[in-house]
Amino acid sequence: FLFRLFPLREHGMNLRAKPLTCQEIQAFKKSKEVMQRFVRAYQLMLRFYGIILVNEETGELKRAENWAERFQNLNRFSHNNLRITRILKCLGEMGYEHYQVHLVKFFLTETLVKETLPNVKRSALDYFLFTVRSKRKRRELVHYAWQHFKPRGSFAWGPHDKLLKYR
Prior knowledge:
Blueprint: H1 2-5, H2 22-30, H3 32-49, E1 51-53, E2 61-63, H4 67-76, H5 79-93, H6 97-113, H7 121-128, H8 135-148, H9 160-165
Helix pairs in contact: 5-6, 5-7, 6-7, 6-8
């Protein structure tokens, strides 16, 4: 189910699922209907995780009303982290890099600032961050993570000397 909704150009856990080709990705991007379905699938998965897509243009997100219950599920079952990584990679493939940035920042905020998702923190830092295609946006997110990571001296996702000078 998830593999068909969020296909990738790489093999996933389901070895029977064929990786996407570049030609297929281009065909998807040309179809308004396919892209609308993709955004609907993204919204469906976000709701499952307790998140709402506030603005389809920008990718802005917020907690859903049932966030506390859904976050318990995210904290309890780590297989969701693999799914979120897959969704993030697929967002990049399909041209929704701005959605990637908002979703990663959402998880960094919930794990590092609000501390509501302690069991998602490692995945957010080790995997989610590095799915972001834009080097500049990825750097901004690493800096954001560094600013909120405790203890800061244990931050291992970027060189501290460069993070100190980052503008």
